[in-house]
Amino acid sequence: MIAAVNHALDGFVRPEVTILGAPRSAFQVCGFAGWIATALVALALAAVDPALEPWIAGLLVLAGSVTFLAVAVITKAITGTARLVFYHHAIAIGAAATGVIVALDVRPLPYLDLSAVALATFLMFGRVGCLMAGCCHGKPAHVGVRYRDEHVAAGFAHVLVGVRLFPSQALEAVLAFGLAAAGATEIATGAAPGSACTLIVLGYAGGRFLIELTRGDQFRPFFAGFSEAQWISLAATAAVIAGDLTEMLPHARWHAAFAAAHGFAACFVLAWRFLGHAPRHRLMHPGHIYDVALALDTLAAPGNRAAVVVATTSLGVRLSCSHHAAPTGAVEHVAISHRDGPMPEEFARIITDLVRLLRPPAARHEIITRDGIFHMLLHR
Questions:
Q1: Is the separation of the CB atoms in 203 and 179 below 8 Å?
Q2: Beta strands at 317-326 and 310-312: parallel, antiparallel or unpaired
Q3: Is the distance from CB of 239 to CB of 233 less than 8 angstroms?
Q4: Helix/strand/coil (H/E/C) assignment for every residue in 159-223
């Protein structure tokens, strides 16, 4: 089953697709398809809900599109790179939609419901584009997708080429599809105004908080051990509860229960990290994973194979690599130690598991411990 999933994902991802005989960016194609789907969904819901005007729905889609492009241009001007961060765009588009609603002096909640469903629809296509291109990828795992050299030209990290990465993008696309479908159903069945928006915001905040634990792309801000997206997710949940308590949003008992579960999840993650014997969250932080991947890629380079070269990561993990011939085949020897003394076994277990995932598959492996140094033999 796992092999079948991996094979399907490997065959699916590609940085370009052919349309009308010409190669096109898969990410951009998915984005354009998402924009069309968003407009169609918004107009369809406006047609079935008497509280919505189709022309206002169209205006909201237009305002959201302009805001999306404006945020992308401003971000590139400030940072120098074209980075699309969903939460940044969602907040800006939500503010733009609110501005349009206030300017037109219409009932806000039905149109906020519509905007939430439209955003979830667009996100679904956007994350498929991320999966195709290799951005927003997950951490090394036994289940996932392997990106190829052709993805490097699209911005994928070359040291992770051939490494199987958890398909975080696909998981988020499924979440977005479910939330969009549920929100559209709320609108179509005449649920209380604001119900769809509340459902989508809470559902996405909770889901995104957990999905972030699987994310492995390193260029994202972290504060106090949580990513920016996780902090925004917690803030979004708190905002919905505030709206519930002040009666700005429709009240439902499950809102408080969901918020409590979200808070419990955050506390559980903190407790698990604090009480654990090894700082797994630091060793498996996306930035440190990249450090280890870069070190192994450098050590395995043909020019370094004949010499004893040692690389040290930002957390003091020392790695060296050598290759040997054996009667049963080639053997790759990776020595793992710590800059500040003997490496604890718990640390070593995490790093050796990571090394196995980052290096080409081995038929079998051995781990030999000597004087606080862990020798990993990968038999191929």
A1: yes
A2: antiparallel
A3: no
A4: HHCCCEECCHHHHHHHHHHHHHHHHHHHHHCCCCCCHHHHHHHHHHHHHHHHHHHHECCCCCCEE
Q: From the centroid of its chain, how far is CA 18?
A: 26
Query: What's the pTM?
Result: 0.91
- Looking at the DSSP assignment, which residues form a beta bridge with residue 23? 18
Euclidean distance between CA atoms 362 and 370, whole angstroms: 22
In angstroms, rounded to a whole number, what is the distance separating the alpha carbons of residues 121 and 38? 6
Q: Report d(CA 380, CA 377) in Å as an integer.
A: 10
Q: Cβ distance 212 to 227 under 8 Å? A: yes
DSSP 231-297: HHHHHHHHHHHHHHHTTSS---HHHHHHHHHHHHHHHHHHHHHHHSSS-HHHHTSHHHHHHHHHHHH
Residue 274: how many other CB atoms lie within 10 Å: 10
d(Cα 195, Cα 186) in Å, to the nearest integer?
Answer: 7
Q: Which of 330, 339, 318, 319 is nearest to 360 (CA)?
A: 330
The three-class DSSP label of residue 47 is helix
**Residue pLDDT, tens place only, 333-369:** 899 999 888 888 888 899 999 999 999 888 888 888 8
Cβ atoms within 10 A of the Cβ of 316, count? 13
Can you give the pLDDT at residue 123?
A: 97
User: Please, are residues 69 and 82 in contact by the beta-carbon 8 Å criterion?
Assistant: no
Q: How many beta carbons lie within 10 A of that of residue 109, not counting itself? A: 19
